[in-house]
Write a structure and sequence with these properties.
InterPro entries: Fatty_acid_hydroxylase, Sterol_desaturase/TMEM195. Its main location: membrane. Keywords: Lipid metabolism, Membrane, Oxidoreductase, Transmembrane, Transmembrane helix. The protein is mostly helical. Helix 4 packs across helix 5 (106-112). The chain has eleven helices and no strands. The chain has helices spanning 2-31, 38-57, 59-70, 81-104, 106-112, 137-140, 142-147, 151-166, 186-193, 210-214, 238-251. 30% of the residues are buried. The chain starts with a helix and ends in a 7-residue tail after the last helix.
Amino acid sequence: MENELRAGQGGIIFLALLVLVILEIIWSWQKDKKVYNTKDTLANLAIFVGFQLSKVVFFGFQYAIMGYLSNFALFQMKSTLIVFLVSFVAVDFVYYWYHRLSHKIKLLWAFHLVHHSSLFMNLTVSYRLNWLSTLLTPFVVAPLILVGLPFEFIAASFGLNLLYQFFLHTEAIGKLGFIEGILATPSAHRVHHGSNEEYIDKNFGGVFMIWDRLFGSYQPETIKPTYGVTTGFISNNPFVLIFKGFMDYFKGKMDYKG
């Protein structure tokens, strides 16, 4: 029954996100914004499907690693609202550093490259995620498990963090006033996806921009971003996009940014 309930909730969320994508396509067409490209969008959808399958394939691996690490937790925190809020903020803090290091460490960039490879900014780009990145998740959240935060809170917070980021991948929403620089916004995330020199390696926060403020990586949107990596178009083939970073890593050809 519980699994059926979760599946139903997942289906409702998927349909809601699909409706938003359709509305954005209509907006783009009516306003002649050209934020969608058919081949690029089909590649995004194929990558999305592959990513969902990868979560199923690697679930056992993730569960085994996290379960093993939980044996070494320093504390056993109770499942309370306060602990959930702490977990949510802690996950975003860990995500900030993981995200930032993914732009600095070449092997991590090999995983992350696919997300920055699109020349467009729209909601479908949000799930342009590497199929193998699920292998890294247990190690990313390992510090939180070892501290003793409840595993279910960590998982829920990570899921909510990624869900929130879905709404950041759009040009349909402009700047949001005083929220800019406090929370991650579409404007701030457009900067992150920009390959403009002043936008490289900026705005890594998933939900909060306070980490970027604190650690000197915040950049407001001042000019229209040029999306993609600094070397330009890569491919619309999802397999090329997924494995391009790894091929370049082993060839020693990763002298580009995104």
